[in-house]
Design brief:
By secondary structure, this protein is α+β, with helices and mostly antiparallel strands. It has two domains: 5-85, Elongation Factor Tu (Ef-tu), domain 3; 89-233, Threonyl-trna Synthetase, Chain A, domain 2 (Threonyl-tRNA Synthetase, Chain A, domain 2). 19% of the residues lie in helices and 37% in strands. It has three helices and 13 strands. The chain has helices spanning 87-111, 136-150, 163-167, and strands spanning 14-23, 26-29, 46-50, 53-63, 66-71, 80-85, 115-120, 125-129, 156-162, 186-192, 196-199, 214-221, 227-233. The strands form three sheets. It has a six-stranded antiparallel sheet, with no helix packed on it. A four-stranded antiparallel sheet has the order 7-8-13-12, covered by helices on one side. The longest helix is centred in the middle third of the chain and has 25 residues, at 87-111.
Length: 234
């Protein structure tokens, strides 16, 4: 049983779980649905409920021995409490994260260009690519292809493989620098139909049918190896 339930079920909005430990890093639950910041995706917003009172989560940190939650909630080790995430915010992040995976797949197929940076917001998202040639017309063509893929309603699935297997396939790690923490031995793969599969620890929708069409917001040349595309759902 994984402590980080969000890695298996990104749709779980509320969870009751037992507190295993409270320390300087925060509260460690037996299981948690709170996603920490990582891979360009912001951390979740949410609350812990104690006797009917909601206490905001003020920080979420992933470590080699689990995810720790920061909150002023008056918790006791051994007791169980409800965790609730701010679902609308989480879901919008999931949608934009899946869009970025499709975009990276389109760029990879066309140019074999890796991702050099990226950030996900609730209302938009951006990726930087290691591209030499780049302009707005090309970016629009890439976005048009993303929309064609979305319209095909591809299933999004998760699987776990050992680290050696993941690192032996160069197409599974699309970032210019390998961002997989050294302590992670089991790698999570996100597969979008027959369009894309890559190592990723972020959260995604179950099917591209959950996405609206994508609009090109802007393009930027941030220097060598950093051609930026910002997109949003229309």
């Amino acid at each position: 049983m994984r402590q980080q339930l969000y890695l298996e079920d990104s749709y779980c909005q509320e969870l009751q779980s037992t507190v295993l430990d409270i320390e300087e890093r925060g509260i460690k639950f037996e299981q948690t649905i709170f996603y920490p910041q990582g891979g360009g995706q912001p951390e979740d917003k949410g609350v812990i409920v104690v006797d009917g009172t909601e206490y905001p989560v003020t920080g979420i940190k992933s470590t080699a021995d689990g995810t720790f939650i920061k909150s002023d909630a008056p918790l006791k080790v051994g007791n169980s409490y409800d965790q609730k995430i701010e679902w609308d915010y989480r879901y919008q992040l999931m949608q934009h994260h899946t869009i970025l995976h499709i975009l990276s797949a389109v760029v990879w197929d066309k140019f074999q260009a890796k991702v050099t940076g990226g950030t996900i917001y609730h209302d938009k998202a951006r990726l930087d690519f290691d591209l030499v040639e780049f302009n707005k017309q090309l970016a629009q063509e890439l976005v048009d292809e993303v929309n064609r893929i979305i319209a095909d309603h591809h299933q999004v699935t998760i699987q776990f493989v050992d680290r050696q297997t993941a690192e032996s396939d160069p197409e599974l790690i699309r970032t210019k620098v390998n961002l997989l923490p050294a302590h992670v031995k089991e790698i999570r793969l996100v597969k979008i139909g027959n369009v894309d599969i890559q190592a990723d620890g972020g959260l995604h929708v179950n099917n591209t049918s959950e996405l609206n069409s994508v609009t090109l917001v802007k393009t930027e040349n941030k220097g060598k190896g950093r051609k930026r595309i910002t997109v949003s759902m229309s």
